[in-house]
What does this fold into?
Amino acid sequence: YGKNTIKFLRLHREGKKEFVKEVEVCTHLRLNSAQEYLDGNNSLVIPTDTIKNIVLLLAKKKGIPTLEEFAIDICEHFMTSFCQVVYVKTYVQEVPWQRLHENGVPHIHSFICVPDGIRFCEAEQCRNGPLVVFAGIKDLKLMKTTQSGFEGFFRNEHTTLPERNDRILCGELFCKWSYGECRNIDFDCIRNKIRECILEAFAGPPDCGEYSPSYQKTVNSIQMLILSKVPQVQVIETVLNNTFYNVVDMKNLGVTNDKEVLVPVETPYGSCACTLGRK
Amino acid sequence: YGKNTIKFLRLHREGKKEFVKEVEVCTHLRLNSAQEYLDGNNSLVIPTDTIKNIVLLLAKKKGIPTLEEFAIDICEHFMTSFCQVVYVKTYVQEVPWQRLHENGVPHIHSFICVPDGIRFCEAEQCRNGPLVVFAGIKDLKLMKTTQSGFEGFFRNEHTTLPERNDRILCGELFCKWSYGECRNIDFDCIRNKIRECILEAFAGPPDCGEYSPSYQKTVNSIQMLILSKVPQVQVIETVLNNTFYNVVDMKNLGVTNDKEVLVPVETPYGSCACTLGRK
Amino acid sequence: YGKNTIKFLRLHREGKKEFVKEVEVCTHLRLNSAQEYLDGNNSLVIPTDTIKNIVLLLAKKKGIPTLEEFAIDICEHFMTSFCQVVYVKTYVQEVPWQRLHENGVPHIHSFICVPDGIRFCEAEQCRNGPLVVFAGIKDLKLMKTTQSGFEGFFRNEHTTLPERNDRILCGELFCKWSYGECRNIDFDCIRNKIRECILEAFAGPPDCGEYSPSYQKTVNSIQMLILSKVPQVQVIETVLNNTFYNVVDMKNLGVTNDKEVLVPVETPYGSCACTLGRK
Amino acid sequence: YGKNTIKFLRLHREGKKEFVKEVEVCTHLRLNSAQEYLDGNNSLVIPTDTIKNIVLLLAKKKGIPTLEEFAIDICEHFMTSFCQVVYVKTYVQEVPWQRLHENGVPHIHSFICVPDGIRFCEAEQCRNGPLVVFAGIKDLKLMKTTQSGFEGFFRNEHTTLPERNDRILCGELFCKWSYGECRNIDFDCIRNKIRECILEAFAGPPDCGEYSPSYQKTVNSIQMLILSKVPQVQVIETVLNNTFYNVVDMKNLGVTNDKEVLVPVETPYGSCACTLGRK
It folds into this structure.
């Protein structure tokens, strides 16, 4: 099989107001032939240059109303137009341009890049199989400075970690979910709702937070909240890449450091992942 | 001379509300001795481990009210405590954590990383010289989808670039300014004012924008606006690293592309820089 | 499940001669419990800190004779020592330190980093299942300046790529293979043999090379040569990430460029992958 | 002023044997005008596209016999052809392709990328000033597993580092030197000689090494050896970015770790730099 990545900008205008989407599209095809590998016979091979042309042409003709609709368009095009294709997957990722505001007034054609979580989606289809759509958010960096601990874990002769009930919880979140039926879905609206669920479950109520007994439990809380609030979501995969922080021991320097100065621990670097679906 | 980088977190609490600053500090020392290079005599060398201890201890004792005040504290400590130091420069850069909000309510202890321009500063001093303070913003990515052109440039037999009056203006901005006298300055307030000046001069009025005849002129407009609105700023250095976009030619594909689909040009990659001061 | 990465150095000495291995080890565990996710009950959770201790302790006690033997040791330790573990995978990657030579004489304790292909391996086991060992080479960048083309490919109305019979073939190779039975295998020796096969199949005979009709065929040639020369290998996965180069059109500059000056095409970026096993 | 980066491949053939250089060229111009900044008058501005055309055309016409000769050609072209240019600097960096060998036989057209130190050079000229040429090696990673210490350093109440006489010396070296008179210099030959000096001074004799009392002394030894062996070199700047390694304390795990297992210390990260010239 082959893969192909292309990055481009799609502009459009409504009256004097400009809109922009910058995306990176990766299209992955598998063919029903092996002769290109075995004999160097390229007669069924679709050049990456052709894939690029098609992706750009679809963007021109149909625009990018949402990442998901664009990914679905691409998948359907390849399945319909090339009978040698037995599998297609399209990954679309968005450069996070946001409209500039001056004193609360939106600017008609100026944008700023604000990478506080990258939006992406995936559409995937095997010939004669259903088209499956995933959407997600990645590179979302969150931190809680208190209300997090890790106690009562498994101990043996190799355990040196002390129990802690007031540590920093800090990590980079990856969250990817699948949709069941894709007709009449407002993808952007659902994505925003899910983002709110993530932040709410991570942080807890704004006035007091909520104690996290482990990264695992926090991951689970995020998933449970999404499943309960967003009925269109079928399955969620969540990965939390943790950064650990150590309180610096300042006894030698004659000072008591009461969780005021902490340094990141580069190693070990941990990650906790879980996939949760509906019954 | 020697250099040393350390990254850490500084927390503090007011009532139940938590505050966090994560910074990367790079301290650069030059000594009045050469014997460590020539003879391997280390008796005047200050180990990087000691530098680290001092930076962390100052953070613990004095906190980080602003990046600039912290950098000044570090500079002054090294100049005062080590008579072998003839030059010290401290660079401080902030990880852009922002307080989370839920439905407009600020959270007491949860934060999200929003890297839409990185704040940094520098304090520098030679022995017997004045302490000079710089501040800046870097990695600020901005785009205008219209109201930008490049015409009337120098032409010779090696010129192939067509003139354009409706191109994309897109780039990554670096802006660094120096202060004259540093007493009684509200560094954070000035920094915010300067950020607003940058966005305003880049984008122009929100309802119509302002035509940019070149990257150079846009850089100059940014600098002129800052100098006119912020009297504490003495000198400004601005660098704009440009990303160029080409309108994709779709004639071969039977379609007219009216600046709707564009691809980034990886090479040539250009940059335009200028330093401007008061008379 | 959870993951954990640690990087460290393992030294040993034979007489006055020093040996060094620097590795990055990523251990991935899955437990037979869900209570840590559902209830915040950590009683079966193995902290990443414990995983780190065990990896370092095994390195200390057993050394790292080969990456593969070390990965097997780690897998077996976790399966044997923790009955709550139902799956373990260990990935080991080597920092490519090579002994320095001065005028052909090997230095007893000095090394240089030469990243011309990174060695890695993986050992994987489900409880009650067999231990499977993979090894591989990645980030191996190769180029042929001639004897490569791409012709006779599938054409439709979206095809604009011209046929070429003298292009540059340039890419980054990833190659990963599995072993059947792992007893009494000289892993390092096989790895070197496979590296030679890759280079030979990619480049062809040194005096004339061998024409490559496509990236796909080159990938297949590499795999076929390995399977024919190295009986211990069961299955090979190969990925070739291609960099394309365009001959610069210099007609406007009054010059004919006969494939002398080429620029890399950043987009589209392609990749071709294939997995091949024995019957 | 403005800057511009371009990356390209230059091929040539002698008989059936192919040669390749892949370089990244960054050209930096300063003009004698300010009107493009102040008034948006572009009439003297040289577009980056034109700069790119000139660099590629010079590569086509003159080839790249050495990085230094190519950088000199570019500088001279801009000074001669554009009277509005008052300063030009050209930086050239090489992608480290090496000819493949099979059983010791060099391949006629296949290459492998071996980044064990990146070669670069710089040529710089002010109008009416001399052309100055620098050359250098960067990203050269070296390690000594013994024969290195750090003792007798400055101590005060903030010193916690223990004295060590058997530590790891590991770092990334940057070395840049200037030539006096540039006529009739064999740049590649000198560069190779200097590389040998660096390795020799870093490592010491192959059978026993040489004790390094500090990073500073090692930097100085490298510079002294180059100045003594290579008369064409006028001034050398050397920077050693250090990676520190800590011996892991395994007492809690019931084991004595005799400098066998070490972990890298990510922070503090240190660097030591020195510039040395002839009297």
About this structure: The CA atoms of residues 23 and 115 of chain C lie 13 Å apart. The radius of gyration of chain C is 23 Å. Chain C touches chain A through 57 residues (CB under 8 Å). Chain C has five helices and ten strands.
